[in-house]
Design brief:
By secondary structure, the chain is mostly helical. The relative contact order is 0.08. It is built from eight helices and two strands, in the order H-H-H-H-H-H-H-E-E-H. Strand 1 and strand 2 form a beta hairpin. Strands 1-2 form a two-stranded antiparallel ribbon.
Length: 215
């Protein structure tokens, strides 16, 4: 969705049906993003699990509803993250790619998106960590998660402080581990500090003394 929203509409080159379809798709995607970013996940869960069964006679299981809610809610945020990441890439990158004969799709796949993904890795990490924590709201539709267990234990034994402390520690461990893994991914995408040249035989030649020796 983020990629589609950045597709330019050229009145000179694009036919009328193509412009119409592209504008319609962009409007639908924009409405989806605004709807699911502008409403709480807990309300979306109730709407899908209870409301869909009552009004549309669509009966989804608890876990089906939970995965659906998390997916569509996260998708709305990720669509904007991807769109912002693409926009953040210098427009000259796209112009340069097209200048060497790439199509828009090729330029997007091989030039723009790799840079955009690197730029939005921190936002991807934020969304992932938010999902880990926000999964607790799914207890409203009966999902047995950490918060659901906390409520059950605290209600039965009146150990609110002890139970909440344990649950907070578990959430903290999960989020810290996730943050570290995402940080490693970010460093991996940054690559090495020493860049290499690739010769005709496909062998990398490092800058420095080794390169001078080969020359």
């Amino acid at each position: 969705m983020g990629v589609v929203q950045t597709i330019p509409i050229d009145k000179k080159r694009d036919s009328l049906p193509k412009r119409f379809i592209l504008r319609l798709v962009k409007i639908i995607f924009k409405a989806y993003v605004e709807l699911f970013r502008g409403t709480p996940m807990i309300v979306q869960a109730v709407f899908i699990f209870y409301g869909a069964a009552q009004v549309f006679n669509i009966h989804l299981g608890m876990w089906q509803s939970a995965f659906l809610v998390v997916s569509i809610n996260t998708g709305a945020y990720m669509a904007e993250s991807v769109r912002g990441g693409i926009i953040s890439v210098d427009p000259g990158q796209m112009e340069g790619a097209k200048a060497i004969g790439m199509t828009h799709v090729q330029a997007m796949l091989y030039v723009i998106l790799p840079q955009a993904i690197r730029n939005i890795i921190p936002q991807i990490g934020n969304n992932f960590i938010i999902n880990i924590k926000d999964s607790s709201v799914l207890s409203v539709i009966g999902i047995v998660d950490l918060f659901f267990v906390h409520k059950s234990v605290a209600g039965a034994l009146y150990t609110y402080f002890e139970s909440a402390t344990i649950v907070m520690c578990i959430y903290l461990v999960m989020t810290v581990i996730s943050s570290r893994l995402l940080l490693l991914w970010e460093k991996k995408m940054d690559g090495n500090d020493n860049y290499e040249l690739v010769d005709a035989m496909g062998v990398g030649t490092q800058f420095g003394e080794e390169r001078k020796g080969r020359l």
